[in-house]
Amino acid sequence: MKELSMQGVIDMHIHTNPDLRVRAYDDMELCDAAVRVGARATVIKTHMGDTTTRAALVNHYNKIVHGENDYTMFGGIVLNSCVGGINPVAVENALKLGAKVVWLPTSSARNHLEKLGKPTDGCVDVVKDGVVVPELAEVFELIKKYDAVLATSHISVEEIFIVVKAAREAGVKKIVVTHPEWWIVAMTMEEQIRIVKEYDVLLERCYAQNKGVGAGNGYISNLPSNLETIQTVGYKNVLISTDGGQVENPHWELAMHEYMQYMYEHGIPEEEIRYMTHDLPCWLLGIEG
Length: 289
Fold this sequence. Notes:
- By secondary structure, the protein is of the alpha/beta class.
- The protein has helices spanning 27-37, 52-66, 88-96, 110-115, 134-146, 157-170, 189-199, 223-233, 252-265, 270-285, and strands at 10-15, 41-45, 72-74, 76-78, 101-103, 127-128, 131-132, 149-151, 174-178, 202-206, 208-210, 219-221, 238-241.
- It contains 10 helices and 13 strands.
């Protein structure tokens, strides 16, 4: 069976150094690897806030070191407590600087803390009394204005449905349900089918998941369940990402290639894999393939 090419691939979810947790690559090393395999773009993420200016510096580095090529790094902002939570000012500044993704809370989300058995004092709530908090409605308007992506991150399944409904009603076009398979989110297949059917969102199915939050707990492959999701929900609503960068997992480009090759060898047509790794993320980022 043929080996798929990485040429033009895009990964919307990679963690890099500098970070409070040691990552496999720093920003420049990720750029080097992406250029080496012919990637079109990557999006870097940190739980500590905004990566937009880091990405801009890497793009300058890319031109100096690698010359003219098709690769671009993008950043986004995660609305954890370190940026003031659901903070429209921080979001607007990030979007003005070129952020492409607005992630809802990760480690500051109530659901995240509850799943880990930690106190929720000071958590960042996205929903209160069954409706989105007023600040989030402001964030929706900014996402719509800048044609950015709303990603649900580590909030609960119940909150995801409330947030997605409100975002759609506010006119947000690009909505990604972040790693719904991960045990912190724990969205069932039935719930994934339902949210796609009702709101036409994208399910970001990632390469692997940890057995416990933090380093040293080990990882398990998501590829079999990702295959089932593509076969059940349909490839047009699945975004292939690695959520890579952990030292315990293969380097980003190896994980992405393994992911793509697994799908191909299990009956997913090459053109559908291309859609999930090229065409769909190009649309989300507003770039040419």
